[in-house]
Amino acid sequence: MSQPLADARRLVVKVGSALVTNNGAGLDLKAIGEWARQIATLRAIGRDVVLVSSGAIACGMQRLGWTRRPSGVHELQAAAAVGQMGLAQVYESAFVAHGLQTAQVLLTHEDLADRKRYLNARSTLTTLLGLGVVPIINENDTVVTDEIKFGDNDTLGALVANLVEADALIILTDQRGLYTADPRKDPDATLIETTRAGDPVLESMAGGAGTQYGKGGMITKVLAAKRAARSGAHTVIASGREADVLPRLARGDGVGTLLIADTQPLTARKQWLADHLQLAGTLHLDAGAVDALHSGRSLLPVGVCDIEGDFERGAVVACVTPERREIARGLVNYSSGEARRIARHASQDIAAVLGYEHEPELIHRDNLILLE
Ligand SMILES: Nc1ncnc2c1ncn2[C@@H]1O[C@H](COP(=O)(O)OP(=O)(O)O)[C@@H](O)[C@H]1O
Ligand SMILES: N[C@@H](CCC(=O)OP(=O)(O)O)C(=O)O
User: Fold this and answer.
1) 329/264 same-domain check
2) 206 Cβ inside 6 Å of ligand 1
3) Which of 61, 142, 266, 309 has its CA 20 to 30 A from that of 28?
4) ipTM of the assembly?
């Protein structure tokens, strides 16, 4: 049942480090040439393709003669800077051979968290697609440290799928798809052909990375599918070594694991809120406020017992239950200092407490998304 892919006009294809660098042996020119050929085939039948490629660190390590992945952030960043040159060079020549232009786009988490930069990135990518160019995206590893990284490119792939409103995210890796357990560890593991993106049972089946070259493993792919489904994109996890994998998927053939997006997509603005990986603060709600949010109402200051963090009006914050489960997130109308003063107060008292009132709600329901 891979029919949804046959209708997908815009695809994000993600290729992992182990695959791109042939397990750290150096850029796999044959494999890269093969994906370029397949992507050219998709372009020829009118599909838009954005490629998210890992491999900068693994390629840099190989070029620098390092056999072990360094643990120091600056060494990793240096390796990424060296390796990204290799990636750009090889992709450029591989696509030129098929008459296609490429564009390098390096993104950070901050680019996508800032609404203006997010919209800029979206316009640039859609302009490139309109020009028939294949954008090749990676994380800008040289300028980000661990705390602010996407880290694995599965997450980045899902965010890009949401950013360009793709119909499908295709994650190519070194296994045939998602198995019931890590096939490297469990010989009885079987391939799952079709499932529902976001099914919590998948998270217990998926393990970590298979080699020192990959970062995320299967768990980040399963979570990426859940994330991509929020904008309505289906996900396929398949082997990048499977013959003609991309054209076959585009024809609707069943290859690998299909994770179907079967929930109502969020609006673009709510999608952007949901995709924030780092939040500016946390609002602790009482049980009444939790119920109000579940019935689709705005968050009023009266239902907030405590505030964590230092944030400005307009920041994206988490809303947690008394048990500290994040149930929603949204754009706050008051800074953390103001919020601490009006917490537990009725909205009609805001002006008396602060001397002014922005809005009666702490977070308006239009700026709020429920996560469960
Ligand atoms: N349930 C599972 N099904 C398939 N692979 C799994 C599973 N759990 C863990 N893995 C591991 O995930 C690895 C792929 O992830 P990773 O090494 O990060 O590759 P990539 O660089 O392509 O992202 C596989 O080689 C496999 O060992
Ligand atoms: N941005 C990093 C990719 C991080 C990574 O290893 O991702 P992945 O192989 O997709 O798990 C790089 O280019 O080396």
Assistant:
1) no
2) yes
3) 142
4) 0.97
Instruction: Give me the mean pLDDT over the 76-101 stretch.
Output: 96
For 353-367, give the DSSP string: HHSS-S-S-SB-GGG
Q: Is 184 close to ligand 1, i.e. is its CB under 6 Å away?
A: yes
215 lines ligand 2 (CB under 6 A): yes
Is 174 known as a binding-site position?
yes
Same structural domain for residues 103 and 141?
yes
Q: Are residues 241 and 101 in the same domain?
A: yes
For residues 25 and 102, state if they share a domain. yes
pTM to 2 decimals?
A: 0.89
- Give the domain range for residue 356: 279-370
Q: Which helix (H) or strand (E) holds 63?
A: helix 56-64
Task: Please tell me whether residues 106 and 231 are part of one structural domain.
Answer: yes
User: Which has more pLDDT, 264 or 11?
Assistant: 11
Residue of 51, 182, 188, 190 best suited for mutating to test ligand 1, as the one with most atoms within 8 Å of CB: 182
- Domain termination residue (choose one: 271, 302, 335): 271
**C-alpha 138 – ligand 2 centre gap (Å):** 8
Choose among 147, 90, 83: nearest CA to 278. Answer: 147
- 338 CB less than 6 Å from ligand 2? no
DSSP state of 147: G
Work out the angle between the directed axes of helices 56-64 and 73-96 (0-180°, nearest 10).
Answer: 100
20 and 92, same domain (yes or no): yes
Q: Which residues pair with 260 in a beta bridge?
A: 196
Known binder of ligand: residue 366?
no
- Whether 60 lines ligand 1, by a CB cut-off of 6 Å, is no
How much is the pLDDT for 148?
A: 63
Which of ligand 2's atoms lies nearest the C-alpha of 156? 10
225, 250, 271 - which closes a domain? 271
